[in-house]
Amino acid sequence: MKSHKIKNSKKLIYVGVLLITLMSCKSMKNSELGGFIGATGGAIIGGVIGNNTGGDTELGAVIGGIVGATVGSVIGNQMDQQAKKIEEELPTVVVERVEEDINIVFDEESGVYFKTNKHELNESSKETINKLAEVLKEYPNSDILIEGHTDNVGKEESNFVLSKYRAQSVKNYLVELGVEEQRFTVAYYGESQPKYTNDTSDGKSKNRRVEVTISPNEALRKQAVAQIKE
């Protein structure tokens, strides 16, 4: 009975540590947050392995958490470096780190814009995307999601199609510049996901946007694991 109580206490302490860490995530650096995400995932996997092999579940969780934290930190650090490089090359573009990902917003203020009801890239937009392509090629171990959005001017069905063509234009040009096509996923939402009010001209211009999300891929995760084994 005593042994059972001790094991339960160990579980409660471990879960408590994870919860406290989760509540403090907002104050973490992105590389530290990556470490936490890795630790949580590693802990779960380690616990399952320990349980399935008849071993110590709690010990498996702790070991998995340590390994996961280290891997997550390595991934987070590389994504931090990539985000910093994008900010240096594209100072007018909004760049955010969200958990493991990098989110970029292209709108009329950041140098990527389209003529009314058109989806072809103009020369100014191409210059901006040229710089992004160089960074994406420098950091090849990532997946890239491109999402198209519009304001609410015109018919909803037309805006949906227009957002598709604009997102595909950005993707196709990046591929033309040498970024591997297999890295891309394209999504489009028309006017359904405004970030700003469509009641003002400024809000409309900001809603006419293409967002790019860069995420660590499986190759980067394997690279991180190999790095901690060295």
UniProtKB/TrEMBL annotation:
Compartment(s) where it occurs, according to its Swiss-Prot or TrEMBL record: Cell outer membrane
Main location: membrane
Keywords associated with the record: Cell outer membrane, Membrane
SUPFAM superfamilies linked: OmpA-like (SSF103088)
Record-linked Pfam families: Gly-zipper_Omp, OmpA
InterPro entries found in the cross-reference section: Bact_OuterMem_StrucFunc, Gly-zipper, OMP_bac, OmpA-like, OmpA-like_sf
The organism's place on the tree of life at top rank: Bacteria
Domain OmpA-like: 101-218
GO cellular component: cell outer membrane
PANTHER family in alphabetical order: LIPOPROTEIN YIAD-RELATED, STATOR ELEMENT OF FLAGELLAR MOTOR COMPLEX
Protein's UniProt name: Outer membrane protein OmpA
